[in-house]
Amino acid sequence: MNKISDDTKFYLDLIKKRPVAFGLECGFTDLKDIHNKWIKLFLFNKKDMTLQAHRGSYKTTCLSIAIAIMIILNPELSIIFMRKADNDVKEIVTQVASLLKKDLFQSLSLALWDKPCILKTESVFEVETNLKLGTRGTPQLFGMGSKGGITGKHGDLIITDDIINVNDRISKAHREKTKLTYQELQNIKNRGGRFINTGTPWHKNDAFTLMPNLIKFDCYQTGLMTDEQIFKIRDSMSISLFSANYELKHISDEDSFFKNPMYGKYPVKDSRAQIDCAYGGKDTIALTIMTESKDGYYAFGKVFTGHVQEHYKEIALLLSQYKVGTLYAETNADKGFFAKEFRNYWQVIRSYHESMNKHLKIVTYLQKEWKNITWDNTTDSDYMEQVVDYQEGGEPDDAPDSASSLIREYNRGKVKAVDTLGY
């Protein structure tokens, strides 16, 4: 085997096993093992795919590296790359062109094709090299904004990156326009071609609802953000925006009773807790823990799924961790079953029959005290999603129900029910 063959094998193995090396070598030193996985998905996945990842996760950097490798590895491909705005497109196309000039990419070209990669066309919207195969007039890479005309364009690989943005979050018209653009892209994919979609969700009805084979990586999965960074970012924006952009979940904040919860560190001291039990099915188990302060309350919340018996040990551990004295549990659904059984794990349990209308209870207690509650930084996002998304009659509503019940215990004899016509 001659030297070129050895080199070819080396670079093909590198692309197959550790393509992130091309980024690291070219100065993207923040890339981690998770990015190796993403680049390989872009390069080798045979089906249409959609990658959602939190903001600041370097997903677009991974795309640019994958595109540069594809241009050399598969010079017969015509790639159409779309972002929301033309300026965003220019940034990435320019970055791909820059990568192709780097030593490692030049070495790859020499190993595979016995010649360097020379850019014959290099503009802010197009890249074409001397490696191009075929006689089609389309460039190897063509970039365009989502407002550009796509009639007459065709590509083997269609890539959309961040074509959904804040405008889609606040405007139904923008959402529908983006959806229409994505649907039109289906007509320009060549037979046997595929789609790669990447970005961050902004609204529960945005264009991601049309994109297939979704893979998600939230801010807790990637390992790219410290707890401190997550808390700081979460405190800087609304819970609905943080949930969408970093947890990849949707929380509606329009007409919400409970907007922008305050977060902080729970001062662990004598606390009380309330549990809203469930025994399987779609209902959730909601656990709320609170302690009173001179300015209001500190609170922690968590929801569980399945049968409450499955979570006894974890519930007891949380109660101990937060120094809970009394645990309150209503008996309406289980006739006191939980209170009786859980005394093997927790001694002080007060069971009661709930007779107050749920919505009236929530607007009387939780809504009234909402601005006076500081939620522990580790409060479960699923719990908070139920609270901030609460609307009368909507489900699940176990978390706001649990929080309201516990605040009521702190306010026995102090608060009268609100006028249901005046909330």
Molecular structure report:
By secondary structure, this protein is α/β, with parallel strands linked by helices. It contains 15 helices and 15 strands. The protein is elongated, with a radius of gyration of 27 Å. The termini are far apart. The relative contact order is 0.10.
Summarize the topology.
Layout: H1 3-17, H2 20-25, H3 33-44, E1 49-53, H4 59-73, E2 79-83, H5 86-100, H6 103-113, E3 119-122, E4 126-129, E5 141-145, E6 155-161, H7 166-170, H8 172-185, E7 189-199, E8 214-217, H9 227-235, H10 239-246, E9 262-264, E10 271-276, E11 285-293, E12 296-304, H11 312-321, E13 324-330, H12 337-342, E14 349-352, H13 358-369, E15 373-376, H14 381-388, H15 398-410
Parallel strand pairs: 1-7, 1-8, 2-5, 2-6, 6-7, 9-15, 10-13, 12-15, 13-14
Antiparallel strand pairs: 3-4, 4-5, 10-11, 11-12
Largest beta-sheet details: 8 strands, mixed
Please give the count of helices: 15
Number of domains: 2
Strand content: 15-25%
Q: Major sheet: order of its strands?
A: 3-4-5-2-6-7-1-8
The chain-level structural class is alpha/beta
CATH architecture label name of the largest domain: 3-Layer(aba) Sandwich
Q: How does the overall form come out from the CA principal axes?
A: elongated
- Can you identify the CATH class of the largest domain? Alpha Beta
For the termini, the CA-CA separation is 81 Å
| Cα-based radius of gyration, to the nearest Å | 27 Å
Total strands: the figure is: 15
The CATH superfamily of the largest domain appears as P-loop containing nucleotide triphosphate hydrolases
Mean pLDDT over the full residue set: 89
What is the H/E order?
HHHEHEHHEEEEHHEEHHEEEEHEHEHEHH
Share of helical residues: 25-40%
- Model regions low in confidence, pLDDT < 50 over at least 5 residues: 417-423
Say what the CATH topology of the largest domain is: Rossmann fold
